[in-house]
Amino acid sequence: MTDNPQPSAELQALDRLVGTWKVTGGADGTVRYEWMPGRFFLLQHVELNQYGQPVTGLEVIGNLRPFGEPASTDVVSRFYDATGNTFDYVYELTGDTLTIWAGAKGSPAYYQGSFNSDGTAVTGEWTYPGGGGYTCTMTRI
C-alpha cells in the first residue's frame, strides 16, 4: 500500500455523472450520483420503475482495494436494492462513451451510452443475452 493513495483516473472520469438525472425509456425515475469524502467511491442513489416494478437502492462504485493489496484496475460496483438483491457491475468511460458491464467486464449483459456534446444527457441501451434490453436516456436536472 502507498502512504498517499489517490483515486484512479478511470474512477475520476466518472465525475461527469455527479448530479441528479431524470431517466426515461425502459426505466423511468431519477438517479443521483455523489462522491463519498475522499473521492474513492461514487455513490448512485436509484429511484426507478422498470417493467412495472419499483427499483430502489444504492450503488457503490470504485476500485477494489483489499487490505494490504494494490487497488484493482477495473472500476467496479455493487448495487444494493430495497428487496435484498445485490448486483455487480464494471464501469468504463472512454471519451463520451459509457459502458456498464453487468457482472464481469465483457459480459453479454451491458449498457452502452453516449454523452451529448454539453454533458447534459446520456442516451444508450441495455443489452441482454438472448435478446431484449431497452433504450433509455438520462437527462441532467
Characterize the structure shown:
The protein is mostly beta strands. The chain is 3% helix and 57% strand. It contains one helix and ten strands; from the N terminus they run αββββββββββ. The chain has one helix spanning 9-12; strands at 19-25, 27-35, 41-50, 53-63, 75-81, 86-94, 97-102, 110-115, 121-127, 133-140. A ten-stranded antiparallel β-barrel has the order 1-2-3-4-5-6-7-8-9-10. Strand 7 and strand 8 form a beta hairpin. The N and C termini lie far apart (39 Å). The model has no long low-confidence stretch (mean pLDDT 95).
Neighbour order of strands in the largest sheet: 1-2-3-4-5-6-7-8-9-10
- Low-pLDDT stretches are none
Q: Would you tell me the overall average pLDDT?
A: 95
- Beta-strand content bin: over 45%
Order of helices and strands: HEEEEEEEEEE
Structure class: mainly beta
Number of DSSP strands? 10
Shape descriptor reads globular
How many strands, what sense, and barrel or not for the largest sheet? 10 strands, antiparallel, barrel
What percent of residues adopt helix (DSSP H or I)? under 10%
Question: How far apart, in Å, are the first and last alpha carbons?
Answer: 39 Å
